[in-house]
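Give me C-alpha cells for this 165-residue protein.
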Amino acid sequence: MSKARNFTLLFATLTLFWVLLNGSLALDVLVVGLVAATLIAFLFRDGLAVVSELRTSPRALITTVRYVFFFIRELVKANLNVARIVLSPALPLNPGFVKVRTRLKSRMGRLLLANSITLTPGTLTVDLDGEWLYIHWVTVDTADVEAATAAIVGGFEEYLEVMYG
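Here you go.
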C-alpha cells in the first residue's frame, strides 16, 4: 500500500476519533485535532498497519462494524462462561494448550485474530507462528486441530477475512 494512502487513512481515522472523543466541532478544538492527526499520520505512515491493511471496500467497512458487534457478543458469552466455571462448586476446568490454524493471509488480520482470542476470557494466544496459533484454553474441549480451530477461531476469522484477507 502506498505511503500516501497509509497517511490518508491514518489521518482520517485519527481525526474521526478526535472529533468523537471531544464531541465538539469548535474551530480551536478541530485545529488542534487536525495538527495532531497530521503529525501522528506523518510519523507513522509506514507502520500503523491496523489502518493501512484494512480493505476499504463497502463490504469490508460494513463487515468491520459487524465484527465489533460480534466481538462484543463473544466477549459477553465468554465472560459468562468463565463466571459459571468459577462459581461452580465442581470447578470444571480442563486447562491446556491447543494448536489452531488460520487461513488469514494478512499480518494484521492474524494479529487482530490473536488479540481477539486473547481478549476473550478463557483463552490466551501464546504464540503466533505463520498460519499457526498456540492458545491456552481454560476448558479444552478437544485437542483436534480442526475442531479447536472451529471452536476458537471460526467466528472471528469469517469477519477478519473480509476485512483484511
